[in-house]
Amino acid sequence: MESQKGYPKTFSVEFFPPKRPEDAGKLRAVREKLASVMRPRFFSVTFGAGGSTQQGTYDTIMDIKQGGYEVAPHLSCIGTTRIGIRALLDDYREAGIRRIVALRGDMPSGMRGPAELRYANELVEFIRAETGEHFHIEVAAYPEFHPQARSAAMDLKNFQRKVEAGANSAITQYFFNADAYLRFVEDCEKMGVTLPIVPGIMPITNYSQLARFSEMCAAEIPRWLSKRLEGFGDDRDSIRSYGEDVVTELCGRLLEAGAPGLHFYCMNQSKPTLAIWENLNLSEINEVPGAGPAASAG
User: Fold this and answer.
1) Is residue 296, in this structure, part of any structural domain at all?
2) Which of 72, 77, 196, 244 satisfies CB 3.0 to 4.6 Å to 123 for a cystine?
């Protein structure tokens, strides 16, 4: 973890685009609550492959940017052409956006094969070729390894390729086993990969939803945790309370070990993330210039 300890702590929050027009106002209120307390370095917004939420992503990105906050669009290469990606990059540059989360993405329903760019490292290379150093490029990391990776070693090599292509930092898939993250960083260090690797954090509020998401992305819920959550049945207050304790402890251990910040998958809610934030007294250590109307866009 020595490679991570020298980086300033960066805290960020992820949204997904509202599905209905009336939800845009709700998300705006969530954003303002999170910003006022956390002053995150940036907000990111997820991206749907094959056009499923691309317009929603763009609209949400622009709304956040117009509010004066630093924002990082997710950009997926699967199901997207070079022309389409180039157009988005041009729009984002024109809007003054300086950060991109570059992902391979999921294969759209009905699509038989990959698009022009097949892997995230190719997307990173394309962004660099088109825009130089304009964008700070975030890429994904998988402490418990990508569900489609042939082996742990291959997954590490794939991550290394993204870094060598020009990534500036990484955000991990969420996990509940701190040792998985610590070992992943150590494995990266052995390969000479020392860029900031920020842990992705998922607050626990709904066990059935969490189990469904975790099944889709192959994020492991440890048996001890799943059994405790199952035991609460439909008692959502108990699930939230226990989940808050578990995730707070996880975050504390990660930061103490030297993690260079936290990236919260807030699920478009403010309370669960703010509860963890306040439990950890993170406002006292968040010295990085935060998102906000006065924040730098650099």
Assistant:
1) no
2) 77
Which residues are catalytic, by number?
A: 14
292 in any annotated domain: no
**Cα 167-270-92 angle, rounded to 5 deg:** 35
| Each residue's pLDDT tens digit, 9-33 | 999 999 999 988 889 999 999 999 9
d(CA 221, CA 212): 11
pLDDT class of 117 with cuts at 50, 70, 90: confident
Q: Residues with Cβ < 8 Å from 157, sequence gap 6 or more?
A: none
Q: E strand or H helix at 42, and its extent? A: strand 42-45
3-state secondary structure of 41: coil
Expressed as residue numbers, the domain containing 106 is: 7-284
The CATH code of the domain that includes 249 is 3.20.20.220
Q: Which residues pair with 48 in a beta bridge?
A: none
Domain for residue 202, yes or no? Answer: yes
Read off the pLDDT of residues 270-289 as tens digits, 9 standing for 90 and up.
999 999 999 999 987 775 44
pLDDT at 298 over 50: no
Query: CA triplet 90, 261, 289: central angle to 5 degrees?
Result: 60
| Six-digit token string for 227 | 């059994």
The closest alpha carbon to 38, from 209, 236, 279, 297, belongs to 279
